[in-house]
């Protein structure tokens, strides 16, 4: 669209004389030529209004219109699954040394997922997309629940052309929140993660399998003594426990507060042997470790036994087991033993720790 304006003004004795005005309005579909020849006397106020009108017409009809970006999107599909070497962590409270029970399923389930599959371990998938040139704010994020989807593990999307970071996080926490690229969970469950770089062009539909990898470790405190009638509570307190996971960097951040895990005993627990207390944890940042204080108390709140472990270092996809007497009153300088165990329940390395 183009507007030509030709004009001539004469100013004399505070009056403005407009002596010629020719306007040609041209567009690709229609040509309109308006020619006015007159001799009009205007005040300066009228002249100012006319001048503004002329400038507005010129500015609102640029010679070259701004080019619109390509808004076309292209289909992508991801099939999310777990790496073949992943086995579910044991969920039972206690078991004899060297005997690992098979994963348990709910008795009221009509169909049960195959052990080791995504749907047998996780109930939620977090799908977060970043542009490669802007990783501070997500371009897209979506929350998928196994209860709301019949094809849980299949993600469909439409993305414009460009380069992207695709981040996937699978877990079973009841609640979670995303803030500054970091997820905070109500509790840490078995969690799996993967990040890939994806180029979206003008080609065919993208269909890609993505194998998620476990990013948590398991800590277990295993009792070599039995539960007796005098013990009421067992408590684990961890300093430096990671409670946030940055989905963009893959790094967990430690909490500034002490995190406590408490187990209360009931009459039906009395006499049980090989009792264990376990928890899952993200891996602390490189060079940072956790410390642990564990103790058992009686019904009067008096201390029965306690340990302080200055350095607790979990490992991805491995279980670290601390074994020793947990409930009996301390009568001697008992030892505590550390067992790092891989998830395929391979060899055991025993390292005695002093009180």
UniProtKB/TrEMBL annotation:
Protein's name according to its UniProt entry: Fimbrillin-A associated anchor protein Mfa1 and Mfa2
């Amino acid at each position: 669209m183009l507007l030509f304006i030709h004009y001539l003004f004469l100013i004399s004795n505070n009056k403005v004389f407009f002596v010629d005005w020719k306007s040609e309005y041209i567009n690709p579909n229609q040509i309109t030529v308006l020619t006015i020849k007159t001799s009009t006397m205007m005040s300066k106020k009228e002249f100012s209004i006319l001048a503004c009108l002329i400038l507005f017409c010129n500015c609102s009809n640029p010679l070259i219109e701004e080019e619109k970006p390509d808004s076309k999107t292209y289909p992508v599909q991801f099939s999310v699954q777990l790496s073949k070497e992943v086995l579910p962590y044991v969920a039972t409270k206690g078991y004899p040394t060297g005997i690992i029970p098979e994963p348990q399923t709910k008795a009221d389930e009509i169909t049960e997922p195959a052990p080791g599959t995504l749907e047998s371990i996780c109930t939620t998938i977090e799908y977060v997309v970043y542009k490669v040139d802007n990783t501070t704010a997500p371009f897209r994020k979506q929350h998928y629940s196994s209860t709301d989807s019949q094809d849980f593990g299949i993600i469909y999307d439409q993305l414009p052309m460009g380069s992207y970071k695709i981040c996937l996080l699978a877990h079973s926490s009841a609640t979670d929140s995303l803030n500054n690229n970091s997820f905070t969970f109500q509790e840490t469950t078995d969690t799996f993660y993967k990040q890939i770089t994806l180029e979206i062009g003008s080609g065919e539909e993208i269909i890609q399998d993505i194998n998620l990898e476990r990013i948590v470790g398991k800590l277990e405190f295993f009792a070599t003594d039995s539960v007796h009638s005098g013990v009421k509570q067992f408590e684990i307190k961890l300093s430096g426990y990671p409670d946030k996971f940055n989905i963009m960097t893959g790094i967990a951040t430690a909490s500034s507060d002490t995190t406590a895990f408490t187990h209360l005993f009931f009459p039906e627990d009395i006499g049980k042997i090989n009792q264990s207390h376990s928890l899952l944890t993200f891996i602390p940042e490189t060079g940072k470790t956790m410390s642990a204080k564990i103790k058992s108390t009686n019904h009067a709140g008096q201390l029965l036994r306690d340990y302080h472990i200055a350095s607790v270092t979990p490992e991805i996809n491995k279980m670290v087991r601390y074994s020793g007497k947990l409930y009996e009153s301390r009568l001697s300088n008992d030892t505590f033993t550390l067992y790092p165990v891989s998830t395929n329940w391979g060899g055991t390395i025993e390292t005695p720790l002093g009180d």
